[in-house]
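User: These chains co-purify. Model them together.
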Amino acid sequence: MGEKEGFTITPWEVSGEIDYDELIVRFGTSKIDEKLLERIARYGPIHTMLKRGIFYSHRDFNRVLDEYEKGNPFYLYTGRGPSGNIHLGHLMPWIFTKYIQDTFDVPLYFQLTDDEKFLFKEGMTLEETKKYAYENMLDIIALGFDPKKTHIFLDTENIEKLYPIALKVAKKITFSTARAVFGFNNSNNIGTIFYTSMQAVPAFMVSEWEKKQVPCVIPCGIDQDPHFRVARDVAPGLGYPKPSLLHCKLFPSLSGDDKMSSSSPMSTIYTTDTPKQVKKKVGQAFTGGRVSVEEQRKLGGNPDICAVYQYNYYLFEEDDAKLKKMRDECVAGERLCGQCKMELTEKINRFLEGHQERREEARERIEEFLMKSVNCH
Amino acid sequence: MGEKEGFTITPWEVSGEIDYDELIVRFGTSKIDEKLLERIARYGPIHTMLKRGIFYSHRDFNRVLDEYEKGNPFYLYTGRGPSGNIHLGHLMPWIFTKYIQDTFDVPLYFQLTDDEKFLFKEGMTLEETKKYAYENMLDIIALGFDPKKTHIFLDTENIEKLYPIALKVAKKITFSTARAVFGFNNSNNIGTIFYTSMQAVPAFMVSEWEKKQVPCVIPCGIDQDPHFRVARDVAPGLGYPKPSLLHCKLFPSLSGDDKMSSSSPMSTIYTTDTPKQVKKKVGQAFTGGRVSVEEQRKLGGNPDICAVYQYNYYLFEEDDAKLKKMRDECVAGERLCGQCKMELTEKINRFLEGHQERREEARERIEEFLMKSVNCH
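Assistant: Joint model of the two components:
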């Protein structure tokens, strides 16, 4: 982990321009190739995020499908560190997770790590991270997950189930390992050092509870891979199967950086933004346009560095033909940034209108989704 | 912490001959002096362990008594790491804890750290430490604690109440601090590094639950002081009162070493030992006797290095006059080791007979003592 030529990527920090192919080599993961896509295609249509290489890397998903074919189904695990509002970049892997759930008809365990965010965020209270957890839950539910197959849980509220497994994990991880993987130093608090054990638990808990090997698949940003590399390393010694991973690239920032930064609200669109806020943010987005209309007409724009184009590519234009047309027109100088921004604003606002409605309805539905817990006070 | 001239003392290791007065200086604690004993005497008789300087050091107990006098009572907290059977050395501070409870009529919270022992003991499972916790509980109950004022709990079974407070503690302790206090190195597992947070929780939890400053008093072996020094350091930042401590010297080993070693069964007497085992162990104990009866008659013995005399001093001869007589006779060569060993064997077996009976009766009484928990499965 850590810094190498060009870019840095850890679960807490991304800087520089990410070379995603290089990351596969650096992390030792596998590319999601044509053969794997063909295997997935047997169970349903191939998702746009797979076709476009947004979900582009994996660990052991072939092995999971081998088991699946033998009638040994897997379960999904994903999570969220509840330290603020949800933005579109958060939704992306969750939308994909729902696609995998629907395609393979498998359960999903959704971890809200209120303990993590408390430990890692200076000045944030446990009451605040818990409040955010319940707010963030509304966004998860609004995506349309099936409550019968989806189990959402907060770490602190389900700790009685999680802690014994976390202890087993923790006993297998030395400080050396944690430091090497996460870059800890002497000033890290001892909670942050322990924390990776908690993040590993959902990858093992179904096997623990059902007293048999139940494979776990974790869709996540490639930046989260280190947590689960540790989990994979300790799994055999604990008698659990190694979790499989499906990695996605990081959702683009409106300011043109590689990863959306939650700390700069103008570079990201929250699910609770108003149409006016969306319009303003998209209006100020970094594009691949030229300095003047004349130049743009003459030389064409550059969609590869354009945040507006990336938004379409990642989430808002699922129609490949339309996306190609947009790109071709831009490159040919036939399309100006204003038009793209207006169209994207409309698409986002249309999406958010429905999402915000479902999000409010979700307030009454939380109980349906909460993991049956030992919580009885 | 760690090694200095002559001896080493940490919560996990004691070696060399302990200079207890030097420890007061090294740790920065206060001697339990005549003035403090006079204050305690206002509430009841002075316990033999206080008179004899077995409980000999404290932190802030005067401040606790100031509050007590103003009508702000404290509570007691002590604990046990359940990794094996209970020996007489374990009982000693618990007997003293009961004396403080009875004298001041205060509640006691008794923590069984099944998580700690799992994390620190290679090859020990969580199931084993939990089993020991329930076995050890019988010894606690057998000492005659009042169930209405005594709340025993296992960490793993009450983690839902403990974890949020442990997180708050952990956030205040850096790896540097933990390493400096406990001597951790890179090969320590990350659970052991986090663990001190869990041990601090009972010192704060009553204040947390009652939403006011409730002083906590912790009677414990002086070797356990580092855990609570950390707890004391973080207390003000969390809005809790600093816990007060009452420190005792370490119970002697039958083999003449400073601290009983649980790993050498012949040097320690377990509460479950048979009369025959006790006779054998005391028979083989290290004494201050001479190489022959003639020498002993001529030169006298040395009670100060004698394990049999120390057993009487620490636990089995509460009558000061009788103890002095025993000592004088020994030094004068009027008393031989055989007599002392026979008398001690009888005293221990008489004690164990009653203890073992109450210990078996305790199996039916566990529920009365368990802390009202969130445990509902």
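Chain B has a mean pLDDT of 93.
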